[in-house]
Structure formats: structure tokens, C-alpha cells
Design goal:
The structure holds 2 protein chains of 2 kinds. By secondary structure, chain A is an alpha/beta fold. Chain A is built from 13 helices and 15 strands. At the A-B interface, strand 1, strand 9 and helix 10 of A face helix 1 and strand 2 of B.
Chain lengths: ~375, ~190
């Protein structure tokens, strides 16, 4: 199906990444945002709150991030497309209920406009040091999907992608933006509603008495109903069977947890989105995501101009990790150069997947600004920083 | 690539001025333009700035390194940002609010009484738009036509006329200051 025209502000705009993300959410059909303000993410909620009365929907400023995350899970079960938005410290507070969303298989979207950390760190300056928290921040075994935009246009586009992932796989999906992209203003073009592909929610339409909230087909994705439509359903963070009722034993745990993992793991190749450039025949492949992928381009171009064979692999989706692609490339190239605004996070994933077949170098940065092109160039060139 | 810094004190609308420059270039002059701004406690009431990059090609590195054009609408902003400019850069100041001192190298200085002109046409709040008009005429980094297209959707609806008038005041002043027009609004428009 295509987008509901009510939420789509078709045309060219000059917007910052935060506002563009809010427009992306509205275009994707999101009609409920619950959040708690925190720099540098507040402008997403401001834009959404200003626009939603005319589009038809609801914005609630909650008492905190725990409540925000809980509210969007409830809203999704009531039939809305929902989201929240936060930054570092708030992201930490959302982790418990993110796990609840994963366990209850709630389609919803969480934006983290990353700033420098740990703790309150650098509220007004960029970082990408929450990228591992995005993967492992909540407790227990799980798989998650996350995307990383590098411009306001991508903030818009990837919001739609994130909502579609969340609906298709019934998993909370993370948009790992950063302060630089959030507060950067550029041209964005919003297409016509009929040009925007929307993945509809997988609703149950069988007899009411037969509905089981966690019954699945071979696709491993359960059918959803709307609270209030007269279906009996139970959902919980406790380990549950297909009825949604708690079952406290290893057998049920094994079945449920492995399904939550497999519904993502078995589809990594269809989920992963990579932008590859001149990988064929490259000696070095630069791996990056979000703002760092954009800052890496001048260094890559300079290295190519100097005669080096440099490919670029930009991670549009940062989770699930493109394990197969990295393993495959490691057999063919000399080294990976990982550029990220942290002191080594995705780097260790790349190194693990490279498994000694290719050298893996990190161009680290503790956050607070973006990389200097020269540092990236030197890593590509010499391997020494 | 052109690198600009628009500075003044918080409340003068310098960020808005930078926003309109970027919007004009990106939406109406068919170029690429990236705006970033300084955030934090220092932005409130004291020197603050917006940075704009304008290029024909997509912009990768999002921040200004050394600007070639600096607009300063307060002394503090001038003192803070006025020397951080390329050797042959262009400085634009509100002449009633900034005492520039000696301008070194091949740098060019253009002055406009932006706040005074804004007061004359009815409200000092549009001093930033007088400066926008002046900037447009002096630097040519955005076209006057494009700026006039970008302006109405960039200011509150009830102040569109006042802002358009402020733009023309600054634009005309800039044409005269750079010798592109002798004097008067008609001459200014003819010259464009």
C-alpha cells in the first residue's frame, strides 16, 4: 500500500534532520508520539506536536522516558503507528521497555539522536557511541533492526524504512541519528504519497474465538489485533506460549526466544541495506555509517586520486550486522578501515567477521565533532595513525 | 565551495538570516547548501552564529572550516569571529553596532546601518533581513530573485510585507555600496 496523503508534505523543503525525521514519521503513517524532551532530539517532537493536530493524531509529553516507551507500546496495540524520540541518557532509560517491546513483538520506532557520552556527556554535540547499546542495551537474547541516516533527506527516507521494518518483522526498530545530522539543515524532497511504499500491519481477520496472539505461520510473524475490537488477547514480558499466557519452563523459553531471533536472523539478507561503491578490485574497504560515512567520502576520493584502490561500504542498516558480506569481502581485500564516532564499537564486529582474513583498522573519535578527513586518509594510506 | 558565518547576538535573528541564505541557495538557486548552528548556553544573549556551506556539488563535510564571508551584527560577534576568515574574505557589518578596527590582508569590508534602516521602515526586528538584502547584493552568493522567492515562506505571515521591504532596503544599500547602482530603488532593481 502507499502513504496516507494526510501526513505527507509533498515538495521541496529546507529542514534540519530532526524536523525531517518527524516528517518521515508522519509520511509513514505514525499518528502517536510519546516522548520526554532531551537535547538534541527535542525538535523531532516539537515538529510532530505542531503538525499532528491537522494530520489527526496525538502527541503526549510523558513524565519520563520509561513512560514514553511504555506508552508507544500500548498505542501500537491499540492500532496506532507509534514512535518515541530521545538521546543518550533517555535511550538508557528506555532499554527495559524496549525489551518489553521486543518480547511483545510490537511494531514501533525509537529515534536516538546520539550525542557525546557516557552519561550526560555532550548534549549539543555529536557522537555514535550508542551503536552497541542499540544492539545489546536491553537484557536477554534478542535481535533488532537499526538504521543510520547521514543527512536530513535520509532522516526522512529512513524513518519510512524503519516503520516498514517494524511492521514487517514486528520488532521495535531504531533510528540511530546523531546531533550533527539532527541539527543540520539541508534540502529535502518529500515525494507524492502514492510514491511512498508502506508495509501494512499484519492483522488477524479470522473468527474471534480462534484468535491466538502468538500463533505463527511459517513466516514466524504473529497476527495482530487492535485492543478494543473485541478480540481476547493477552500480551506480557514474561515468557509466553501462543495464547500469550506466561509459561515458566525451558521448553517454552527455547521455542519463543529462538523464534524471536530466527524471524530476524533467517532474513538478514533481505533486511540488510548497504551502499557499496567501487568494492570490486579494491585493496581497502572503508566501512562507516551515519554522519561518519559522509565525512569519509572526501578522504576516499583523495585516496583514489592518489592511485589507491579504495572501496566504500556504507551501512544504511547498522543492525542486523552484515556478517556474510564482511566475511566474503575479507577473503578478497587487504584491509577494512572502520570510521565511527566512538572509540571502537562496530570495529569489533568487523574484526570478528573478518576473522583474520583481512586487517581491520579503526579511525576512532571520542565524539564532540566529526572526523578530520586527514585522519581517515592516513588510515587508508598507511595503516598508521 | 563558499563558507559563510552569520553572527550577532542571540535574538537578532542571525540564525534565521543564515537559514534563509541556505534555503535560497538550496531551493531556489539550485545549489547545495548545508546550515549548521552553534548550540549551547553561549548562544543565548551573547555571540551566536550560523554557518552555511554553499556549493554546486553535494556537500560532504558539514562544518565550516575557514569562512570566506563573515557577517557580524554585534561587536562581540565581530571580536569573536571577525578574524577567523580567509585572507581575501569579505566582512559585512552593521556599522552602528560594530567598530571593525583595521582590516588586514586583502579582506574587504562592507558596512550597512542595518538596525537603523530597519527602525526607519518600522521595526528593528527586521535588521537581520536588511542584512540579508545587503549580503545578497554585495556577495552575489545567492540571487536576489531567489531570495525574494524564499523570503515569504521563511517569516511569519503577517510580517511578510515588512520583511520584503527590509530586504529591498538592504539590497539597494548593497548595490550602491558596491557601485552596482548609483542610488535609489529603481536604479537598484534595474541593475539586477
Amino acid at each position: 500500500m502507499t502513504a496516507d496523503p494526510k501526513g505527507v508534505l509533498t515538495g521541496a523543503h529546507y529542514l534540519d534532520g530532526d524536523h525531517a525525521a518527524a516528517e518521515g514519521a508522519l509520511a509513514a503513517g505514525c499518528r502517536f508520539l510519546a516522548g520526554y524532551p532531551i537535547t538534541p532530539s527535542t525538535e523531532v517532537a516539537e515538529r510532530f506536536a505542531a503538525r499532528i493536530p491537522k494530520v489527526g493524531g496525538c502527541f503526549i509529553q510523558m513524565e519520563d522516558e520509561l513512560g514514553s516507551m511504555a506508552a508507544i507500546l500500548g498505542a501500537a496495540w491499540a492500532g496506532a503507528k507509534s514512535m518515541t524520540v530521545t538521546s543518550g541518557p533517555g535511550f538508557s532509560l528506555m532499554m527495559e521497555n524496549l525489551g518489553l517491546g521486543i518480547m511483545m513483538e510490537v511494531p514501533t520506532v525509537l529515534i536516538n539522536v546520539q550525542r557525546g557520552g557516557p552519561s550526560t556527556g555532550l548534549p549539543t554535540l555529536p557522537g555514535q557511541a550508542d551503536i552497541m547499546q542499540a544492539r545489546w542495551g536491553s537484557h536477554g537474547d534478542y535481535e533488532i533492526i537499526a538504521v543510520a541516516p547521514s543527512s536530513p533527506q535520509e532522516a526522512f527516507d529512513y524513518m519510512i524504512m524503519a516503520f516498514n521494518f517494524s511492521e514487517k518483522y514486528r520488532v521495535p526498530t531504531l533510528v540511530m541519528m546523531d546531533e550533527c545530522v539532527g541539527h543540520m539543515t539541508e534540502k529535502i524532497v518529500i515525494p507524492e504519497p502514492e510514491e511512498i511504499e508502506i508495509v501494512p500491519r499484519k492483522y488477524y481477520d479470522g473468527p474471534k474465538e480462534d484468535y491466538l496472539p502468538y500463533n505463527v505461520d511459517t513466516d514466524m510473524i504473529p497476527w495482530m489485533v487492535k485492543a478494543g475490537d473485541g478480540y481476547r488477547f493477552h500480551t506480557t514480558g514474561l515468557t509466553h506460549d501462543e495464547r500469550g499466557y506466561p509459561v515458566m519452563n525451558a521448553e517454552c523459553q527455547d521455542k519463543l526466544v529462538n523464534r524471536l531471533l530466527d524471524k530476524i536472523r533467517s532474513r538478514v539478507d533481505e533486511i540488510v541495506v548497504l551502499e557499496e561503491d567501487q568494492i570490486e578490485g579494491a585493496d581497502t574497504v572503508v566501512i562507516s555509517y551515519g554522519i561518519s560515512s559522509r565525512v569519509a567520502i572526501p578522504a576516499i576520493e583523495q585516496a583514489r586520486a592518489d592511485g589507491m584502490k579504495v572501496g566504500s561500504l556504507r551501512m544504511v542498516t547498522v543492525w542486523p550486522f552484515p556478517e556474510n558480506r564482511i566475511r566474503d569481502l575479507a577473503q578478497k581485500i587487504g584491509k577494512f578501515v572502520v570510521v565511527e564516532l566512538n572509540c571502537g564499537q562496530m570495529y569489533y564486529e568487523v574484526e570478528r567477521a573478518a576473522a583474520g582474513n583481512a586487517e581491520t583498522l579503526l579511525v576512532p573519535h571520542a565524539g564532540g565533532w566529526v572526523h578530520d578527513s586527514e585522519d581517515i586518509y592516513q588510515a587508508i594510506k598507511g595503516g598508521e595513525r | 565551495m563558499n563558507e559563510l558565518r552569520i553572527s550577532g547576538f542571540g535574538g537578532q535573528g542571525v540564525i534565521r538570516c543564515g537559514y534563509i541564505i541556505g534555503k535560497t541557495a538550496a531551493l531556489f538557486d539550485n545549489k547545495h547548501a548545508t546550515l549548521t548552528q552553534s548550540f549551547g548556553p553561549e548562544a543565548r544573549g551573547s555571540a551566536c552564529s550560523a554557518q552555511v556551506l554553499i556549493d554546486d556539488k553535494p556537500i560532504r563535510y558539514p562544518y565550516v572550516s575557514v569562512p570566506d564571508t563573515v557577517v557580524a551584527m554585534s561587536q562581540e560577534a565581530y571580536d569573536k569571529f571577525g578574524r577567523d576568515i580567509t585572507d581575501d574574505g569579505t566582512l559585512l557589518i552593521d556599522e552602528d553596532l560594530v567598530k571593525p578596527g583595521e582590516v588586514t590582508g586583502n579582506r574587504k569590508l562592507y558596512a550597512v546601518p542595518a538596525t537603523r534602516l530597519a527602525e526607519q521602515i518600522g521595526n528593528r526586528i527586521v535588521a537581520n533581513i536588511v542584512m540579508l538584502g545587503f549580503f545578497t547584493a554585495v556577495t552575489g552568493l545567492i540571487s536576489g530573485e531567489a531570495a525574494r522567492e524564499a523570503l515569504p515562506s521563511s517569516v511569519p505571515e503577517r510580517f511578510v510585507d515588512l520583511n520584503m521591504k527590509a530586504f529591498e532596503e538592504g539590497f539597494e544599500y548593497g548595490l550602491v555600496a558596491t557601485g552596482k547602482a548609483v542610488e535609489g530603488k529603481k536604479a537598484a532593481l534595474d541593475a539586477e
